[in-house]
Amino acid sequence: MQEYDSYARHPPKLIAGARCLDFLNTIEDARTERLTRYSEFAFWSKAAELVDAGGLRRLLALAAKQPEVAAKALAVVLEARKALAQLLAGSPARRKPAISAINRILAQDGFTLRLAFGGDGFRELWEPDSPELLQPLLILLREAAALLSSPAQPQIHHCADDDCHWFFLDTSRNQSRRWCQMETCGNKAKARAHYRRHHTG
Ligand SMILES: [Zn+2]
């Protein structure tokens, strides 16, 4: 049982300053996969406000009713995450196949965006027959495309901790943010520096 680790019980830390980067941080310590089931992606999407509570319920119900469709959707989610990470941190040679992979996903049929208004304001809406399980991913990919093509692109960095590599948007004035979070990787680095000062020589 992986219940303890579930995003349903322990919401993800959204620290990147852009949720398309937080999405890349669903791998922990550069190796622990958090999106092991479609439902984990659904709970993550709720925490990242890509869907509301009703949307989460619908995604979970759909995934429970069609486990094979949900497994395929999860595979697409993971493929997109890998391609995005390669765009940001891979070698230039990986860039072209990564862009192609993302565009293939974006070009799938049925993703027709509508603008809707109701209740508390405007919101985006897709055609009712669109593959709903992938809607949160499509929002993420659109935001990623917007971020990558914006003047903020050079502010995308990853954590200086060798075991972490979480991505974040460095909005500090002099581009000096080194750690994903001060209270984890930042403190670890401080403790290491302290140890070196007192235990060497
Ligand atoms: Zn870190």
**What is the tally of helical segments?**
7
CATH topology: Jann2411-like fold
Each distinct ligand: zinc ion
Q: What number of domains?
A: 1
> How large a portion of the residues is in β-strands, by DSSP E?
5-15%
Main sheet strand line-up: 1-2
CATH architecture: Orthogonal Bundle
The low-confidence parts are none
SSE run: HEEHHHHEEHEEH
Shape category: globular
Total strand segments: 6
Fourth-tier CATH superfamily name: Jann2411-like domain
Measured as a percent range, the helix fraction is 40-55%
| Category by helix and strand content | mainly alpha
- Beginning-to-end CA distance, first to last residue: 47 Å
Largest sheet: 2 strands, antiparallel
Please tell me the overall pLDDT.
88
* CATH class designation: Mainly Alpha
What is the alpha-carbon Rg in Å?
A: 19 Å
Task: Explain the overall architecture.
With 201 residues, the protein is mainly alpha-helical. It has one domain: Jann2411-like fold. Helices cover 49% and strands 11% of the residues. The strands form three sheets. A two-stranded antiparallel sheet has the order 1-2. The site of zinc ion has 7 residues, from loops.
